[in-house]
Amino acid sequence: MHDVVVPPNPGEQPPVPAAPASSQAPVESAPASLGQPEPLDAAGGRPTPPEPAQAPGSGDPAVPPPPPVGSPAAPRATDGALSQAGLDLLTFFLDDGAAGGELDTLGHWLQGFEDRAAAVGLSLNRGKCRLSVAPGATIPEALQGIETFPLDDIQHLGVPCGSPETMRAFVEEAAKSAERKMRMIASLPDAHVALTLLKFCAGFVSVVHLMRAVGAVFDFACIDQATQSCLATITGIETDASAWALASLPVRLGGLGLHSCADTAAIAHIAATFDGEACLPSLVTPYVLPHAMLLDEDDTFLASLEDPRLAPFESVLEKIQNVLQARDNYGGRGQKVWSATVHDERRKALLISMTEELGRSGRLQGSALALKQVQVRARIQSCSAQHASAWLYGNAEADPRLWLSPAELAVAIRLRLGLPIAPMPSICRLCGTGSADVDGVHARSCFSGGRRTRMHNALRDVIADFARRGLLAPAVERPVFSNTERKRPDISYVRDGTTVVLDVAVTFPLQPSNPQLALCPSFSLV
User: Fold this and answer.
1) What are phi and psi of 417, to 5 degrees?
2) Engineering a disulfide at 220: which of 59, 261, 292, 336 sits with its beta carbon 3.0 to 4.6 angstroms away?
3) Which contiguous run of DSSP H or E holds residue 145?
4) What is the pTM of this model?
5) CA 185 to CA 183: how far, in whole Å?
């Protein structure tokens, strides 16, 4: 869609385009679409493209051709086009764009745009255009046929730019659309596939562009509630406040990566505002530029700065203030940097609250309470280790056997979030002596049943297979020591005359026999 922005009356200076409720009139229109069939004339043939108008006394076209798509000069080519066409705003992103100026000037520019498109075999679909003008404005002939909209219903690149009421309605409709998508995902029979789609195709990722545009003015908590409900439908797990707070953390911090929209909206908008500020000089005229860059007059930006959800994160607020003063948004990585800081601090606060909650509950005392508190910290730390989350979101190109069944996925998610996997403790069916606790600690550390041996052999064979691919000719459990043949390394190979031996050990970071060892950074809970 190509968007064209026009002021209300010809001859007036344009107001500030950055203000959502300004009287500036955006018009949206579709650019020439690649691959679209050329229109037919009345005889059924293809019309001859009109010859471009020639400037008096010159062999060059009056309207210069646009720069090649993707060329380095293309993003800033609007500088010259603005002064040439007399527009106040001109910007394109792929096949979307916006232009703004007086109505007559805009009509002249649009005619030239259509002429240039026709010269290369393309056409402008006016049915996808949007024109917003003040009530009572006279539409010039060149803009006839474009659907008009009121000034308070301005949309550009999927973002509402009109009055607060229409913006709120737009966000509510976007939230409903996201909820419908999540309900469809939750109905899929394959739970692991559904969880992967929820992470990468719905929830946070589906509205992040909108959050960057409207900020914390609107509450995105409904998206978080829908995401939590979708997770419950997929896995059959009802998460409490602590479990959901952990699930909303990034995977690298032991969560599920289902980011909270409500906690991110303010940061996303602040970062987008700084990112857009650097682009303004190439998009608007010098008259509009000073007004467009007055951030202290942007109500949406100020509301995001004052969002109460940012108040607990003093380090983030300090970084934002530094950017305000230096006008350096980490090279366009502000949202990533600030979000990472918020997530790190939320994780620290969550660990403290979870361990304190264990003490307040009164269910555990003394050494049992101390052990449980250590295991909570160790579980989240080990889930944050490298490769510990490789199973979480499947790979379409991977072996189908690597995708978990619904029952397996539910247990794995419960263990990751610290939720019980059984209603009450019981006697272990394998060893007959140990107590199978509801947290699955004994089930994952019991020596009976041969599970650890099978895991050991599987890891050994995978490492040996990689060594064979590297042409190292590994030997599996072959004696290499002369003093005794009872000691056989799991894998051995010779390289540059030196014998290299490898031994594989299957460990459990929550082993009750040595709780402090569970906090070792090298442990990984897979």
Assistant:
1) -90, 0
2) 261
3) none
4) 0.71
5) 5
Could you report the per-residue pLDDT of 109-127, keeping only the tens digit for each? 888 888 888 999 988 888 8
According to DSSP, residue 138 is labeled P
Listed in sequence order, the residues at least 6 apart from 422 whose beta carbon sits closer than 8 Å to its beta carbon are 436, 438, 440
Alpha carbon distance 132, 152 (integer Å): 9
3-state helix, strand, coil in the chain (%, to 5): 50, 10, 40
**487-501 mean pLDDT:** 86
Distance CA 456, CA 451 (A): 9
| Structure-token match 């056997």, residue found | 401
Q: What is the pLDDT of residues 242-273, one digit of tens each?
A: 999 999 999 999 999 999 998 888 888 888 88
| Chain mean pLDDT for the chain | 76
CA distance 7 to 23: 7
Distance, in Å, from the CA atom of 393 to the CA atom of 396, rounded to the nearest integer, reads: 10
pLDDT digits 0-9 by tens, 150-198: 777 777 777 887 777 888 888 888 889 999 999 999 999 999 999 999 9
Contact (CB, 8 A) for 420 and 438: yes
Helix (H, G, I), strand (E, B) or coil at 293: coil
C-alpha distances in Å from residue 423, one per residue of 154, 260, 429, 438: 54, 30, 16, 7
Query: Would you state the structure tokens that stand for residue 8, as one six-digit string?
Result: 């209300």
The single-letter DSSP state of residue 67 is P
Residue count of the chain: 526
- Integer Cα distance of 285 and 15 in angstroms: 12
Contact 420, 439 (CB under 8 A): yes
Instruction: Yes or no: say if 212 and 269 are a contact pair by the CB < 8 Å rule.
Output: yes
Give the DSSP letter string of 388-440.
Answer: TTTTTS--TTS-GGGSPPHHHHHHHHHHHHT--SSSS-EE-TTTSSSEE-TTS
Q: Which residue intervals of 120-237 are DSSP H helices?
A: 164-186, 191-201, 204-214, 221-235
| Residue corresponding to tokens 């101390």 | 370
Q: What are phi and psi of 91, to 5 degrees?
A: -150, 145
CB proximity list for 60: less than 8 A, separation 6 or greater: 54
- Are the C-beta atoms of residues 5 and 82 closer than 8 Å to each other? no
What pLDDT, on the 0 to 100 scale, is given for residue 227? 95
311: its two tokens:
């108040």
What local confidence, expressed as pLDDT, does residue 271 receive? 85
Distance CA 311, CA 290 (A): 30
363 closest CA partner among 427, 420, 434: 420
In one-letter notation, the amino acid at residue 305 is L
